[in-house]
Write a structure and sequence with these properties.
Blueprint (H helix, E strand, L loop, with lengths): L1 E5 L2 H10 L3 E4 L2 E5 L5 E6 L4 H10 L11 E10 L9 E9 L1 H4 L5 E3 L2 H13 L4 E8 L7 H11 L3 E3 L2 H10 L3 E10 L13 E3 L2 E3 L2 H6 L3 H30 L4
Parallel strand pairs: 1-4, 1-5, 5-10, 6-8, 8-9
Antiparallel strand pairs: 2-3, 3-4, 5-9, 6-7, 6-10, 11-12
Helix pairs in contact: 1-8, 2-6, 4-8
Length: about 250
């Protein structure tokens, strides 16, 4: 089985456009790949606390499932100035801010051989990509100034809000994991004020992205346009990545 983990609905929608998956339960979809292997899609939510809490609460999901590989898939922000909207980014190392990490090592290295194989397959399909470190931030990094400061302080080239704790949790379950993202906002792009609209819940901060996207204003419009431009890149990338993972089942 290939397990695909997303954070927000636009990421989930890309997967559902590529694969014919049926809703199994709340924010979980299942289907069968042409190869006969099962594909399970799980939308965990935005933010390190919420995503990890949902993952931990549903650990029983793995009890009766033979997960061969997990793919953390979707969008991220660019920190390195040379990264552009729509660039495919494959982290070879994930870093965590202290509030995200809480304990243990500050960074986790991913399978470079598998990352290299993914890269070669993407290039064969005409998809260029970048490899580098990604940092999981506690909150949305909204301003260009904050992005540059995070780039300088961590050396990470891209940023997200879920990857580090998910990679750590998957490894504890002895599940092989790769991360494939597309840049949604580069280092010069300012984002809407999402952090101030986050709502504290017992499972962690909830970011009402649907409500934010419906609001007017130049920044919201820019974010919508970025989603439209980056989605085709993810859609083209996903089947290439899944095919590589399926080739490595049992290896």
């Amino acid at each position: 089985m290939i397990l695909i983990l997303t954070a927000i609905r636009p990421e989930t929608e890309v997967v559902l456009e590529v694969y014919d998956l049926k809703k199994d339960q709340d924010k979980i979809w299942r289907g069968t790949h042409d190869s006969g292997h099962e594909v399970l899609l799980w939308e965990l939510g935005m933010g390190h606390e919420l995503a990890l809490k949902k993952f931990e609460i549903n650990q029983s999901l793995f009890a009766n499932l033979a997960v061969d590989h997990a793919l953390v898939f979707g969008y991220c922000g660019g920190l390195r100035p040379t990264l552009r909207l729509g660039d495919v980014f494959i982290p070879e190392r994930v870093i965590a801010e202290d509030a995200v990490r809480k304990e243990g090592p500050v960074d986790l290295h991913l399978d470079m051989e598998l990352c290299d194989e993914l890269g070669r397959s993407l290039l064969k399909e005409g998809i260029t990509y970048r490899v580098g470190p990604l940092v999981t931030a506690e909150k949305v990094v909204q301003s260009p100034e904050d992005k540059i400061n995070l780039f300088r302080s961590t050396g990470a080239e891209a940023v997200d809000m879920e990857v580090f704790p998910l990679v750590r949790a998957l490894r504890r379950h002895k599940i092989s994991v790769v991360v494939v993202k597309a840049i949604l906002d580069d280092s010069r792009t300012a984002l809407p004020d999402i952090n101030s609209k986050a709502v504290a819940t017992q499972d962690g901060l909830h970011y009402p992205m649907a409500e934010v996207s419906k609001q007017g204003g130049a920044l919201q419009k820019n974010l919508k346009n970025n989603l439209k431009r980056a989605a085709p890149v993810l859609k083209k990338t996903l089947p290439v990545v899944v095919d590589v993972l399926l080739k490595n089942v049992g290896l």
